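Practice record 12: protein with zinc ion.
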Amino acid sequence: MKRLIIDLESLPEEGKNFSGKIDRDLFGIDSDEAKVVDDLHYDLHAQRFGNELFLQGKISAAFEFCCVRCLNRFVQTLVIDDFSTSIRIDDQWVIDPSDQLREEILLDFPAYPHCEDADEPSTCVIPNMHFGVDKSPSSGVNSSAPTGESGVWDALDALGGISKSDKKDQKSWQLPNVEPPK
Ligand SMILES: [Zn+2]
């Protein structure tokens, strides 16, 4: 697995830029709640000060989350522009900060993933509020919406007709001295 390895021997005093990718397997995340869909990208400046290695820069990784409201799956790239950390140097020749980068991304995980935060934001529609339940949510929204609406209005008209005739029927057999409910 490809990781970020910083060779202290060849690291110049003024530091050095490291940019690249760490294999997505680093995360080990593949569940219904979250699935890693891209490698961890880094663009960092590394510099040694005495017994510490400072890392500073940008890291990012993309995940597929499940929206807490509409349950649709969506891809969101978590970007940390101001990542910084320091790693203690004892007697190592090389430093592998991959796990620190991983931790930082995991800390940035949304507690309540929302599809409106997606890389390509979509309209969040709660399934129960959607009248066209027989239609798959992925089918063309624009084409299905008008027919769905007219169907709803037809249904409401039909309901109105039934309730009117029910009232008529009720009146006909109600006793004259019983007040109709308001
Ligand atoms: Zn949603």
